[in-house]
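Checked the freezer inventory, then went back to the computational side. Two predictions to log before the end of the day. The first one is the construct we discussed on Monday; recording sequence and tokens without edits.
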Amino acid sequence: MALATAAAGSGKLLNRLRLKQFELIKGVSEGLSFRQLADRMALSQPAISKMAREMEDTLGAAVFERHRDGVSLTAFGQSLVHDARLIVNKLARLESELAELRRSPIRTLRAGAPSYTGMSLLSRPVALIAARHQQAHVEIIDGIANRLFDMLMAGELDFVIGSLPSRNLSDEEAALLHVEVLYPDEVRFIAHRDMGLAGRPVALEELLPHSWVMPSKDSLVRSALRAALLKKKLPVPPATVESSPPFIGAVVAEQPGFIGLLRSDSAAYLAQRLNLSLLEVRPRIPLPPVAIFRLRDADPSALAVELFGLVRESVETLFGE
């Protein structure tokens, strides 16, 4: 990272850089002018300009590009945006957590997980944590992988449990992550037990005449199915029902005739609880593995370590390993 490179060449950073200077980088990256930042930070505009010049002197490079319409970041300044956001967001969160720590000895744990993982892997571990540590506060943020990873990179989450986002991570982002793979993932198919599809290999084309219950069109599962069908030159079936994993399971369980399309954890979870058949469809359709992602330079708290252990137990129970 650019900031690490600058640090290697100068011992002045820790003594001379200030938090408000990182707020400047973050604010300009969000499209704010020095005047707007002065109002936000309760400072005069000359004080903001002086702070920017001092930062550039310390780093030995131009960070801001001044022009008639306002200010923007130079290429070097752009390379500092991730570090600036991480520092500002972590300190803002620390301020909130310190207030909580005065009331409780256990800090808030913020985890990100797509709905399918939150339902199948985190429900039992979170319930156990709540029972064991009555003063603990665990917050599960539901969302798509891209949004959750942005929050993790910004220091707004302690960890994410799920698969990699659909967008490609940069080498710099990948280097920041500590990854523990929980299991390889794949597209799985569920059906009513009365359909007679369980206990034997099922060809993908055999399922096409049935009605389909699927996640949204832009989901990774749906995209993977589409690619597999096109590779075999098979038609892509329309979704009779399009919904989230719990409702997909409920529709399939209601009556024979529907094929549900899910990730492996949701499929196994719903098959066990709703007495559904988990089909052995060929060919298998792989998905990115499910893992625990956290920032490499942020050691997990004792509460997070305990939760990780419970999640591993959930994986073993879910897949019978």
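The second is the one RB wanted added to the comparison set:
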Amino acid sequence: MKNKKLEKEIVALVLTIVFCIIAVSVVLLILINTFNEKQKEEIIEKTKPPVVSNYSASIFFGGKVSVDDDLISEYTVDGVQDFYPLIENIEPAVSNNEVALFQLDDVVVNDYKEEGVPKSFADMFSSIGFSMVSLASADQLELGETQLLDSHTYWDNQIMYTSGSEAHEQGTTAIYDKNGITFGLLSYTMPQNIEGITITNPFLLDVYNDQKAASDIMNLRNQVDIIIVYLDWGEVDSFEVTNEQHRIAKLLADSGADVLLGTGTGSIQPIEWIDDTIVYYSLGNLLTTNTDLDERVGMIGSIFVQKTVVDGVVTIEKSQPKADLIYTTSNSTKIMMFDELTDELQNKESVYEKYSVVLTMLDDSIRIGGIK
């Protein structure tokens, strides 16, 4: 009996051992299979092609537009105004780019009486493809705060995005999306430009200071792909960039601005890269009634933007900065490219050579010409 009992115990023990071996083997097989599956998934994930999306856009920019009542009268016949001939020569250059910007000095008035500019004058810019406009100019306040506030009733109903002046909110930022790329525009005039001007409404004009501009850029950085800053700065009628312009440009570049566009000097100034920021120190005038040659020769520019998204990670590249000269004719006022000039400007070749040298004084890699 004892032997039978012992045999049963031995059999039970053997069966238990066998069961344990089988159980362990099954667990090991499951673990090995799971490990192999994970390895396969990792290999598949590593060999899986990344999801890549590419977007691109080119930006066109011009300088300041500042006109007088004589020009408005020149393009008014029997009470009918047609300003298109003023800018028709640069329409191809504007419309061939996805984003186009300029600065306007004058307020838009509802009832034109030789003050400000009529609605039809402002309309012509959007009609040829301009999408954003800087209003950060002390001249906007020339007719008083009430008139500037009234001007915003026009801009509030336009397709062009404005920056630098707002009826209700300070720190106006224009945000514009095109071709999958988001562009943000900030605009400032310098404190010295408003000396002697009383501003009771702080929202009407964005006045530059280091802390405000750096803060505006950093706040905008996570909202857009490209930050453009217009600056109404510099020494009037000077081709030379001041130390203060250099200092501000470096500060804004370090803060995250992508493109800096200067106006305010009347004359053109050089272009340069500061790390990954392109700086056009002064575009001069896009359209002017000033008689000085230095102010009638202006600059237009463009830059190409490439946005690449790889598995959700965004990379922005700015390249191909270009610049070219334009001229505002004095007889039958209009903007013209230099290669289109005939009798409107004597010695146009020598004038072009003189002023184009200014553009590359700080960086000879900038391409002159080719904006069509």
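For RB: The chain has ten helices and 19 strands. The first strand starts at residue 52 and ends at 66. Let me know if you want it refolded.
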